[in-house]
Design brief:
heterodimer, A: 483 residues, alpha+beta, Thiol Ester Dehydrase, Chain A, 2 domains, five-stranded antiparallel beta sheet, 16% helix, globular, B: alpha/beta, Peroxisomal Thiolase, Chain A, domain 1, 13 helices
Chain lengths: 483, 393
C-alpha cells in the first residue's frame, strides 16, 4: 500500500466523533491524594477537608491538571492486560492508533495538551468524554522519527451532562530508529548524570574520613569542636580557638545561598557535563555559625545562577543504593551537589494587584528519578509502557522511560500555583512538549507573568521546563486571582 | 615588626634566561643549566664560584643535578620555597639572607620547565589521585566538583570581586591590554608585536567564567635564573647592582593554597597584605617612590587586588586606578613592562624579577623614567612573596 493510500485510510476517520465514553468509577479522594503525592502538590484544597470547606470551592476539589485522567481505561488499555470479553476501545483515535501500530509506527510521544477548565472537579463526579478526531498529519520526518501527528478534541461532561472542560490533544506516532537526534537512538543509553565514579577522587584520610562517611550517608557534616562548639571547614585535627583535639561534627541542613560561583568550560575531564556551574555556598547557620562549602551545581543554567540564590543539597551517587562501610577512595562514592532551592508554597494567595507583567517566578529544579516518572504515570492513570517499562521504552525507540505529559502538566500546575497560593483558579493549562524528560536529567522550571488583567483578576504565566537536552515543556497557565 | 636586617646588604647581579617558547625541544634540566650559566655570564661570575641554590618545591631539577651540571665543587646553602607561583621573590629573599649572613657567597635562584610541551598546569588534575597526606587532602573539597585548575580557583574570587566592587570583565581586560601592549615592544616576548584590544579580550572564549582566555597567562617552556651576592661583591661585577631593598613572604589568617574561600571576605589578598607591610616597613619607601611594578599576573583579576593591598589605591578602587591606561607605559604606574606572564612568558614569576632588575639598570624595552625602586610580586591567591629592588647608592 502506498503512503498516500495509507494516509487516505487514516484520514477517513477524521471528523469522526466517538461514543460518549463514561468513566468506570467516580473521582475519589484517594485518587486525588495519590496524584498530589506523585506531583508533590501540597495545596490543602485538594486533600484537607477543613481547609477546603473554608475555600472558595466550599469543599475538596481535584487539581485542574487532572481533567483528562479520570475516565481513562487504566491498565486494560494495553491489550495483554485486557480482561477477556472486554472489547478494545472503539473511539476514533484508538482505531487510528491501531492502524498506525500495525504499519510500524509503534513509537509514541505526546506533543500538545491544552486543557480548558470550566469548573473544578470534585470527589464523586463521574466524568464522560466525547472525542472528535480532528486531524491526522501527512507523514513527517521529525527528530524522533518518521511519523504522523494525530490530533483529537475531547469534551468532558459529568454523567448529568454538565460541561466541565475541554482538551485538545496531539500525539506523534513514529517508526523507531528513523529519527535524526541522538535522543532518538535506542542504542544510546542516556549518559548518567555526571558520573561521580569517573571524577577526580577526593583524598580521604584520618582527618576528613568522618565527612566522607557522611557523604555516603547523605549527610553534610561540618567539623565541630566538641569542647567549645566552634564550627569550621575544611576539617583540622585541632580547634584553633580552644586548642582541643576532640573534633566531632554537626550536620548541616544543606540549605544555603550562593556566595560566589564560576562556570567551568575548560579543561574538560571525565565525570562531568560541561560547562559546570560551581558554587561557593554560605550554609544556613548552625548554632548561629555560618560556614561556607563548595560544590558543583545541578539543575541550573549558567545564565540563571546568581549570587544570593537560595540552594539546597542534592546527592550524586556512583552506585544505585547507599553503601555501608566503604572505607577507601576507590570504591562507591557519593558527592554533594547544590541545586536551586525548591520555592516554598505560598500560603496566602496573591491578589491580581500584587502581580506585575514580566515578573519572574523563582526557578524550581526537580531531580527526576525513575520513581518520579513511574509514580507520575500511574497517579495520572497513564499505563503506557514507555512511562514505566525501560525495556519496552528502548524497543519503542526511546533512550529510557520518560515523563508522561499529564505529569509534566501536573508539575507545571504545581509550579505556578505554589507561587500564586492555594486559591488561584486555573482556567487553562496549555503545553507543547519538546525534549523528552528522562530520569537523572534534572528538570528546571522557570516562568514569567505574560499578562495581567487586574480588573477581572486574569493572569497568564508563561512556563518553561528545561533539561540538558533542551526545553521539555513550553506552555502557559491561565489563572484567576482574587482582585 | 622591625626592619629586616639583611635588607640592603645583597643584590641581584646577574639575570639569565633561555628563549621562551611553546616547545623547547630539550630537557628541563638543560633549560635550567642554560639559564644559570647565562645569569653567571651576565654578572661576570664563574659558575664554579656559586655555593648556594634556591628554587621552588615544584621545580623538577634537583640542586644536586644543577650543582653537577655547573661543575660547582661545594654547596653550603640550598633552599626551596613551597606553594607554586608564590615562591619567586622568596628565592631571592633566601639568597639575600644567605649571602648577608655569610652562609653563602653567590646564590643562584632558578626555575625552568617545559610547562607547555610537558606537564601543563592548566590541564588540572586529570587523573584520579587517591592519596592520604594532608597536602593531597586539601584538594578533596574542590577536585571532585570539577574545580581543578588555578583558573577555576581564581574565578571564584573574581566573581565575588565583581559582585562587591562592581568590577567588570572589561576591567580585567584592561590588565590584559596593558600586558600585551608592553609585550608588543619586547622581542623576547611570545606575543612580541601582537598587541590586543579590549574587543579581542571580550571576544576570546571562556575558560572559567568570569575569566576569558585572554585573562589567563600563557603556558611556556623556558628557564630563568638570577645570581645574588653581597653588595660589596656586587660592586666589582659587570652589571649595576639591583639591591634587595626589601623582601618578604606572607601567609595570612585562614590561609589555603589558592582556595582561601572560607575567610570572612574573599575580595582581598591578605597574604599579599602581609608582604606589603614588610616591604614598606623594611624599605622605608612609600607608594610615591615606586614608578613601576611587576605584579604577578597568572590571571588578570588579582592584579587589581595587589594594587589595593600595596596601597596604590583604596580597596575597590583599582578598577579606576587602571582605567584609561593607568598601568600602561606613560600611565600612573606602568605595570609588567616586559609584557607580564600574559604577554612575555610564564616562568612562575621569575621572569618578572628579571624585568625588575632591568628597570633598575635602565635597560628595559619599556624603560620607565626615574624607575629607581621597583616592586616585584609573587603568585597571588597562594602563600606568596614580594621584593623591592633598587639602585646601589
Amino acid at each position: 500500500m502506498s503512503a498516500d493510500d495509507f494516509l487516505a485510510q487514516l484520514r477517513a476517520h477524521v471528523g469522526a466523533q466517538g461514543p460518549r465514553h463514561e468513566a468506570r468509577h467516580p473521582i475519589t479522594g484517594t485518587g486525588i491524594a495519590d496524584w498530589c503525592d506523585a506531583i508533590g502538590d501540597t495545596n490543602p484544597l485538594y486533600t484537607d477537608e477543613e481547609a477546603a470547606a473554608k475555600s472558595r470551592h466550599g469543599g475538596i476539589v481535584a487539581p485542574p491538571a487532572t481533567l483528562d485522567i479520570w475516565d481513562r481505561p487504566g491498565l486494560p488499555a494495553q491489550a495483554r492486560f485486557r480482561p477477556q470479553g472486554l472489547p478494545a476501545a472503539d473511539d476514533p483515535r484508538s482505531k487510528v492508533l491501531r492502524m498506525l501500530e500495525n504499519a510500524g509506527f509503534v513509537g509514541v510521544v505526546a506533543v500538545n495538551s491544552e486543557l480548558e477548565i470550566v469548573r473544578y472537579l470534585r470527589p464523586g463526579d463521574v466524568l464522560t468524554n466525547t472525542q472528535t478526531l480532528e486531524e491526522i498529519s501527512e507523514e513527517k520526518q521529525t527528530g524522533l522519527g518518521i511519523g504522523h501527528f494525530v490530533t483529537t478534541r475531547q469534551r468532558y461532561e459529568t454523567v448529568d451532562g454538565e460541561h466541565v472542560g475541554d482538551l485538545l490533544f496531539r500525539i506523534l506516532k513514529f517508526r523507531p530508529g528513523t529519527g535524526k537526534t541522538a535522543a532518538a537512538d535506542p542504542n544510546a543509553k542516556p549518559a548518567p548524570a555526571a558520573d561521580p565514579a569517573l571524577r577526580p577522587r577526593p583524598a580521604i584520610n584520618r582527618v576528613n574520613q568522618a565527612l566522607f562517611d557522611g557523604y555516603r550517608a547523605h549527610e553534610l557534616r561540618i567539623p565541630k569542636c566538641s569542647e567549645c562548639g566552634r564550627l569550621f571547614f575544611p576539617p583540622l585535627p585541632r580547634c584553633s580557638e580552644c586548642g582541643s583535639f576532640d573534633i566531632g561534627y554537626a550536620v548541616a541542613s544543606g540549605h544555603g545561598t550562593v556566595y560566589s560561583y564560576t562556570v567551568v568550560h575548560y579543561p574538560q575531564v571525565p565525570g562531568f557535563r560541561y560547562p559546570i556551574v560551581t558554587a561557593l555556598v554560605e550554609l544556613e547557620p548552625i548554632d548561629g555559625q555560618v560556614v561556607r562549602f563548595l560544590a558543583d551545581m545541578v539543575g541550573v543554567t549558567p545564565d540563571a545562577v546568581t549570587i544570593g540564590m537560595p540552594v539546597e543539597i542534592e546527592w550524586l551517587d556512583s552506585h544505585p543504593a547507599q553503601v555501608e562501610d566503604a572505607t577507601d577512595s576507590r570504591g562507591p562514592i557519593s558527592l554533594p551537589q547544590f541545586r536551586p532551592a525548591t520555592p516554598t508554597r505560598r500560603a496566602q494567595t496573591l491578589s491580581a494587584a500584587e502581580v506585575s507583567e514580566g515578573e519572574r517566578l523563582p526557578i524550581w529544579t526537580l531531580p527526576l528519578s525513575p520513581t518520579h516518572i513511574v509514580a507520575g504515570a500511574i497517579a495520572t492513570r497513564d499505563f503506557q509502557d514507555v512511562h514505566h517499562d525501560r525495556d519496552l521504552a528502548h524497543k519503542k525507540g526511546s533512550a529510557d522511560i520518560f515523563l508522561n505529559i499529564n505529569t509534566s502538566l501536573g508539575y507545571m500546575q504545581r509550579f505556578v500555583t505554589d507561587w500564586t497560593g492555594p486559591e488561584a483558579v486555573v482556567s487553562a493549562l496549555r503545553v507543547r512538549l519538546g525534549a523528552p524528560a528522562y530520569p537523572y536529567r534534572p528538570l528546571t522550571f522557570s516562568g514569567s507573568v505574560q499578562s495581567v488583567d487586574a480588573g477581572i483578576g486574569r493572569v497568564v504565566v508563561a512556563v518553561q521546563a528545561v533539561n540538558d537536552l533542551g526545553p521539555h515543556v513550553t506552555g502557559t497557565v491561565e489563572l484567576e486571582l482574587p482582585t | 615588626m622591625s626592619k629586616h636586617t639583611y635588607a640592603g646588604k645583597a643584590a641581584v647581579v646577574g639575570i639569565g634566561a633561555t628563549e621562551f617558547s611553546k616547545n623547547s625541544g630539550r630537557s628541563e634540566l638543560q633549560l635550567a643549566l642554560e639559564a644559570c650559566v647565562a645569569a653567571c655570564e651576565d654578572a661576570g661570575v664563574d659558575p664554579k664560584q656559586v655555593n648556594g641554590l634556591s628554587t621552588f618545591t615544584m621545580e623538577t631539577n634537583p640542586e644536586s643535578e644543577i650543582m653537577r651540571g655547573l661543575g660547582i665543587p661545594e654547596l653550603t646553602h640550598f633552599s626551596r620555597i613551597h606553594f607554586g607561583g608564590g615562591a619567586p621573590c622568596a628565592t631571592v629573599q633566601y639568597a639575600a639572607m644567605a649571602v648577608a649572613s655569610g652562609v653563602a657567597d653567590y646564590v643562584l635562584c632558578y626555575r625552568a620547565f617545559n610547562e607547555r610541551s610537558g606537564r601543563r598546569f592548566g590541564a588540572g588534575v586529570q587523573d584520579r589521585p587517591a592519596g592520604a597526606t594532608s597536602e593531597e587532602a586539601q584538594f578533596a573539597w574542590t577536585s571532585p566538583h570539577g574545580i581543578l585548575t588555578p583558573a577555576s580557583w581564581v574565578a571564584m574570587f573574581a566573581r565575588r570581586m565583581m559582585h562587591e566592587y562592581g568590577v567588570t570583565s572589561e576591567d580585567f581586560g584592561a590588565v590584559a591590554v596593558a600586558d600585551r601592549r608592553h609585550a608588543a615592544n619586547n622581542p623576547a616576548a611570545h606575543f612580541y608585536e601582537q598587541p590586543i584590544t579590549l574587543a579581542d579580550h571580550q571576544a576570546s572564549r571562556w575558560i572559567v567564567e568570569p575569566l576569558h582566555l585572554l585573562d589567563c597567562c600563557q603556558e611556556t617552556d623556558g628557564g630563568q635564573a638570577m645570581l645574588v651576592t653581597t653588595i660589596e661583591r656586587a660592586r666589582d661585577l659587570k652589571q649595576p647592582a639591583a639591591v634587595v631593598e626589601a623582601a618578604a613572604q606572607g601567609m595570612a589568617d585562614d590561609q589555603h593554597m589558592m582556595r582561601s574561600f572560607f575567610r570572612d571576605s574573599i575580595v582581598g589578598l591578605p597574604e599579599m597584605g602581609t608582604c606589603a607591610r614588610q616591604i614598606w616597613e623594611t624599605s622605608g619607601l612609600s607608594t610615591d617612590d615606586v614608578k613601576t611594578a611587576v605584579l604577578y599576573d597568572h590571571f588578570t583579576p588579582f592584579v587589581l587586588a595587589q594594587l589595593e593591598e600595596f596601597g596604590f589605591c583604596k580597596p575597590g578602587e583599582a578598577k579606576d586606578f587602571i582605567a584609561d591606561g593607568g598601568i600602561e607605559i606613560g600611565g600612573r604606574l606602568p605595570v609588567n613592562t616586559h609584557g607580564g606572564q600574559l604577554g612575555e612568558a610564564y616562568i612562575h614569576g621569575m621572569n618578572g624579577i628579571a624585568e625588575g632588575v632591568r628597570q633598575v639598570r635602565g635597560t628595559s624595552v619599556n624603560q620607565v623614567d626615574g624607575a629607581e625602586h621597583v616592586l616585584v610580586t609573587g603568585g597571588t591567591g597562594v602563600p606568596t612573596s614580594a621584593l623591592m629592588l633598587g639602585p646601589d647608592r
